[in-house]
Amino acid sequence: MSYAYDTIADIICLAEENNISFGDVVLRYELENYDRNEEAVIREIEHRLDIFEMSVQDGIAYTDKTTSGMSGGQAAQLDCQSPRFMSEIAYKAMTYAIAVNEANAKMFRIVACPTAGSCGVMPGAVKAVADHYQLDKSTVVKGFLAASGIGNVVANRACVAGAVGGCQAEIGTAACMAAGAIVEMMGGTPRQVGHAIALCMKNLLGLACDPVAGLVEVPCVKRNGFYAVHAITASEMALMNIESQIPPDEVIEAMNNIGRAMPAALRETSDGGLAVTPTGTAIAERVQSL
Question: Mean per-residue pLDDT for 99-127?
């Protein structure tokens, strides 16, 4: 049989029909359509997970400011501190996500997930959960597979670029991928993965992409920290069988429609939002003079 899918509903249906997980469907589709065996696919995923880990460590270790001076050293400020209000998992997810984004802002090696501006959410949230529960790499690989299937659906049916759909498309997709990965890693059902996606995305609708000075730093770096925690919230609800009234594919479609209806000023042009505040404008002028 074919494991081709176009929607989240397709993946859930294939998983339930074959009594396999959400991530297993994505793996079988990969093997069905590309000239690679399972070992090669898993090896490539493990390589990317290693890069995620490297970005977390580099983001914490290298505390110098970026050329713009807008970021750098913030993950280190958070690292090894005891959270005052948050759970340990949420605190680490926030810290790790910021670390990856700071590494990205300094032009270190990262894997866009799905974009550079949203690169910290999934590595941060997934690593925090995996570390806390001491999950083995094969379990994290399954989470990565689930996340990649989610990213494929959003990219093919909607958009993942801030220039097209605003930050809801970038950070929203990243958070959905992270939430789905966590549910998969924790043994959730395919339907729970679907609800995690819907719960996550529908609470991000309308988020503008308004980078100050046109750089992927403000508000991007800290935003990744916030939405890593958001992803964990969605996965927690889904694993507790809290369901979204709106199915995931309809939420994705709504995100796409909202994004394309946004003014261009709120879609990565730096012509609106935070980018044109007095302080944002002053930062842009200073950066342009460097």
Answer: 93
